[in-house]
Amino acid sequence: MIITKLKRITRTGFINFWRNGFLSFAAIVVITLSLSSLGGLIFASAFARSMLSEVKDKVDINVYFTLSAQEPDILSLQKDINILPQVASTSYVSSDQALVGFKMRWRDNTLIMQGLDEIGTNPFPASLNIKAKDPGQYGSIASFLDNKNPIDASGVPIIDKVNYAENKIIIDRLSSIIPTVEKSGSVIAIIFVLVAMIVVFNTIRLIIYAARDEISVMKLVGASNTFVRGPFVVSGIMYGFISGIITLIVMAVGAYWGDTLILKLAGVDVAANFQLMVNVFSTYFAKNFGQIFSIIMLSGVVLGGLSSYIAARRYLKV
Amino acid sequence: MIYYDKVSKIYPDKSVALDGISFGVEPKEFVTIVGHSGAGKTTLMKLLIAEDKPTGGTISFESLNVNKLNKKQLNKLRRRVGMVFQDFRLIPNKTVYENIAFAMEASGRSDSQISADVPHVLELVDLSHKIWSFPKELSGGESQRVAIARAIVNNPEIIIADEPTGNLDPANTFEVIRILKKINELGTTVLLTTHNKGVVDAVGGRVITMEKGKIVRDDKSGKYIL
Asked: Fewer beta carbons within 10 angstroms: which end of chain A, N or C?
């Protein structure tokens, strides 16, 4: 009995979808537009997030050691720092590596290379590069280093200098800007989603309003609420499903187009330097396809189905 | 079978549609209710299927108090009543077949019953050839015959026809009345409203005359007197 009922509701929903071709088309256009704005939002937030993480990644502090500092002392300090909860990663650059790096960078500049030869010894200190999980946490890492003030076997401090003070202004500013950007991003997202929901709901309400006389006849013939409302919900789900698929196609095309646009705007050279700028959208789309697919399809289906369910309610009271 | 007991209906704008109406309808009766437009005929019909609620009094369908039914009971009651309206009220995006099948689906009939009964009932109203047409492809008379087919397909105990001939030409009017009389002869109670003298005279049978929300005459075998 329930299966028969379900079958009839589904079939009627499908038939109504076809026969109300123009209305179905209108609903699909509106839902597709709404879902596409949601898709655009997903892309925008992915772009902003990858930009932010790139910026965050650029922020760090370096600990420069004295020339006399011994490697085992430095490595044991690195171990201590790695344990700190606010530290994301550390990397140790020995004075030899620093020299090699310097030579590589300035190999075409004979003047500098000559000056380096004249010094004779390696003038570069060993250093430790520290990245925090959050830009706001560099202060506490710097004060940890201040308090600890590690010394070598003969009691001489091994840290020459920490460049936190020099980077402090940038770090402070970033750590206040980033949360603001993230917060306003979510507010904009919520407003977008709300507007999309209202527009879709009202469109479907108009469609069902057009069928209100039909609904009252069905009720007077003795049909139950489920039986009258069911087909509308099925049609609503179909609107959402088809809109979802169209939206995903639009997003794929949009991702490709967006990537090309960025390359064009930023120039191929700049884009090549910033790895993230190359194919940021299509990479994100491909990598997170499962998640994007679920979000878009689910939003479409739930939005369509639920709107129909709620909109039909008021005409069922016959 | 049906009892109206001191039923009154006052609309929110204080217009009185029904004013203390009492009468009963016996099984297998053919009752015609006549009166001018605004006499309260349509309200009387609406109250019987709880499309509207009375301001006072009770309406009973056999032992059921129509206004005390829950949703489920009300749906069941409506399936025992076949409704025919002046404006046909067919579902526009369903074919003739589907319009009739819908009433059967709503009352939970099986697919095989539906595919057997719908053509049969269409034969009864002589519209077998229109089975796959949509309502907009039908004339007024054809539409009303489809509406009657929909009303009788569930073998209701009573047919309520509210001005079923109001939008029809004389030839179709008498065709509809002929069908209703045939249905009545087969054992279904019929409650018909009209303001058409010719219809009343063609039906014969009991005539209730209404005026300004009151019953002014109730004749066993009446004529149209207003």
From this structure: N
User: Mean per-residue pLDDT for A88-107?
Assistant: 86
Return the SS3 of B52.
coil
Three-state helix/strand/coil letters over B143-200: HHHHHHHHHHCCCCCEEEEECCCCCCCHHHHHHHHHHHHHHHHCCCEEEEEECCHHHH
CA–CA distance, A195 with A178 (Å, rounded to integer): 26
Contact A8 B75 (CB under 8 A): no
Are A180 and A52 found together in one domain? yes
The distance of B219 to chain A (nearest Cα, Å) reads 30
Residue type, A272: A
Instruction: Tell whether B75 lies on the interface with A, counting CB pairs under 8 A.
Output: yes
Q: Do A247 and A128 fall into the same domain?
A: no
Q: What is the ipTM of this complex?
A: 0.87
Cβ contacts of B103 on chain A, cutoff 8 Å: 221-222
- Tell me the CA distances in angstroms from A89 to A64, A153, B16, B83, B108, one per residue in order: 17, 27, 84, 78, 68
Contact A224 B71 (CB under 8 A): yes
Whether CATH 3.40.50.300 fits B27-54+81-219: yes
> Looking at the structure, do residues A233 and A306 belong to the same domain, yes or no?
yes
The pLDDT tens digits along chain B (226 residues) read: 999 999 999 999 988 999 999 999 999 999 999 988 888 899 999 999 998 999 999 999 998 999 899 989 999 999 999 999 989 999 999 999 999 999 999 888 999 999 999 999 999 899 999 999 999 999 999 999 999 999 999 999 999 999 999 889 999 999 999 999 999 999 999 999 998 888 888 888 899 999 989 999 898 876 666 6
Best of B69, B70, B77, B93 to disrupt the A interface by mutation (most A CBs within 10 Å)? B93
Shortest Cα–Cα distance, B190 to chain A (Å): 16
Alpha-carbon distance of A40 to B58, in angstroms, equals 60
Number of domains in chain A: 2
pLDDT tens readout for residues A138-169: 888 888 888 877 787 777 888 888 887 677 77
CATH label of the domain that carries residue A91: 3.30.70.3040
Is there a contact between A217 and B76 if contact means CB atoms under 8 Å apart? Answer: no
Q: Which residue, A157, A192, A216, sits at the end of a domain?
A: A157
Both A50 and A74 in one domain: the answer is no
Token couple for A158 = 């091994």
Per domain, the residue ranges of chain B are 27-54+81-219
Q: Give dist(CA A274, CA B58) in Å, integer.
A: 82
Q: A139 and A286 share a domain?
A: no
Confidence (pLDDT) at A274: 59
Task: Give the pLDDT mean for A117-128.
Answer: 84
Which among A8, A15, A221 is the nearest to B103, CB-wise? A221
Domain membership flag for residue A95:
yes
Contact A196/A37 with Cβ under 8 angstroms? yes
The residues on A that touch B, with CB distances below 8 Å, are 1, 4-5, 8, 15-16, 19-20, 213-214, 217-225, 227, 318
DSSP code, position A157: B
Q: Which domain holds residue A81?
A: 67-157
**pTM across the whole model:** 0.78
Q: Same domain, yes or no, for A188 and A307?
A: yes
